[in-house]
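JOB MANIFEST
job_type = single_chain_structure
chain_count = 1
residues = 364
[input]
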Amino acid sequence: MTPQTRTSLKELQQLDQDIAQVRSAVQELELLLEEVDAPVLRSEQDVKGLQKRLQEVKLVEQRVELSIEERQVRSKKLEGRMEEVRNVREEAAVHAELEMVRRALENDEQEALSLLDQIRRIEERLDEQDAAYQEALTEVEPRRVELTQERLGTEERLEELKEKRKTFAEGIDPSERRVYESIMAGSTGVAVSELMPDGACGNCFSVVPLQVQNEIRHGTGMIRCEGCGVILTPESAEGIARAEAENERIMEALELTEEERDVERAVVAEAIAAEAAEEAAVVEEVVETGLAAMLGDGGVEPEPEAAPGEEAAESEPEAALAEEEATIAAPSSEAAEDSTPMLDEVVEGDSSSDRPVTDDDAGV
């Protein structure tokens, strides 16, 4: 893949991205138009519904009017036959039929009156709905015209980009264009990506092996990323500039963060120092107060009173020592008592002996 082809694929990708943005803008404008037209459409539907209902009621009223006319004609004929009857039986039959026609005529007249009243109410509601529709149409019409014109302009822009893209794509190698279009068909939106200055893919940021990086920068073949599958191209001057600007921004942010941390540390150190100074002042005040109290009592420092726990702790070793001395002294006294009878016996034995003293007894 030659540098010219790489540049062409990048431009083709830019055109495709522009087309996608314009198409998205057209869809957003259509949604806005639907949102603006929603109140007007609802009011228009209400008006059309009332018009349809009014037409239906008027048709029913017309049929009732025709029925009334027919029954009136029938009633007149029956009244004429009443004068021509020849016996009571015919007179009763004509009279019964005439009464039936008259009752039906009265029902039709009542229905016609009801329908006329219903038509009047529907016409009143129709006038109100039509006024509301005209008011809503007047309110939204400027915005609707603006959105319509904007949509038409965006659609024209979209058609121009499509035509430009078609003409531009014809100048690219068909095999490479097929690879590019197959990648774009995956709905990723990116088919060509530059290498990062550190040798990573510009799309998925996975690191590309050094040998592959060298082939991308100096070779002519089409190489795709093993991670995301996009076509990799060497970094451009603009890409390098953007990377350097991003690195500078990151370093500035880190420096700013370090400065903020230093300021925070200084504030904490000052707070600790202030707290220590306050504690030292409190201790000094307590010492001075104690010395003043001692000087006030004649210069003799009062012995501190031992706490109950301390007294118990001091008495325990003394009790243990006394018990140990008593234990040691007890066996000595018992031994003395036991040795006294033995000495008495020895003395008595020596005094009661009458034998003369020999040289052996004298120890010579």
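[summary]
Confidence is low (pLDDT under 50) at residues 304-315, 328-364.
Strands lie at 192-194, 231-233.
exit_status = 0
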